[in-house]
Amino acid sequence: MEGQAVGNGDDLVNLRLVKAWLWWTLALLTVLPLVGMLVSTKYRNPEFHGKASWLTFGRPRLVHANSVIFGAFSTQVLGLMYYLVTRLCGRRTAKELGGTKLGKVLTEQTIVELDSAGEPQLSHDGSTNALIWRYRRFKSGRS
């Protein structure tokens, strides 16, 4: 580290990713409380939504509570963690794009294995290997 200038870490942070997470937080915290308003109206006036079973008080209440907790607050934490961890550690976060590049590589590899004429050597986890073998048997008519 001697002789190297240490920056403030902003050049390491993927600000586009952080802003995306925080914009989704803002969007979810704007929309999801509206479900809470509908739930509170249903609580005060039980006939508000009609008699549909999926609109009884308990179901929209759980949708509101879970979506606010997991949808809004988890996106906020993830956005701030991408920023804070990068700044505090002085290193870029691994797989900061959510594994999209890895997903593309694995998808291309799996498509080749699904469509190959011979028996491919599979190196995935057990469930993925089983799905590939099942698909190949189904495709060949040997279900």
How many helical stretches? 4
Q: Helical residue percent?
A: 55-70%
Main β-sheet, in a few words?
A: none
Shape from CA axes? Answer: flat
Number of domains: 2
Element string (H = helix, E = strand): HHHH
- The residue-averaged pLDDT reads 79
Can you walk me through this structure?
- This protein has 2 domains: 15-89; 100-140.
- The protein is 65% helix and 0% strand.
- It has helices at residues 15-44, 58-89, 100-115, 126-140.
- The longest helix is centred in the middle third of the chain and has 32 residues, at 58-89.
- It is flat.
In short:
With 143 residues, the chain is an all-alpha fold. Helix content is 65%, strand content 0%.
Topology at a glance:
Elements lengths: L14 H30 L13 H32 L10 H16 L10 H15 L3
Question: What descriptors fit this protein?
Answer:
143 residues, mainly alpha, disordered N terminus
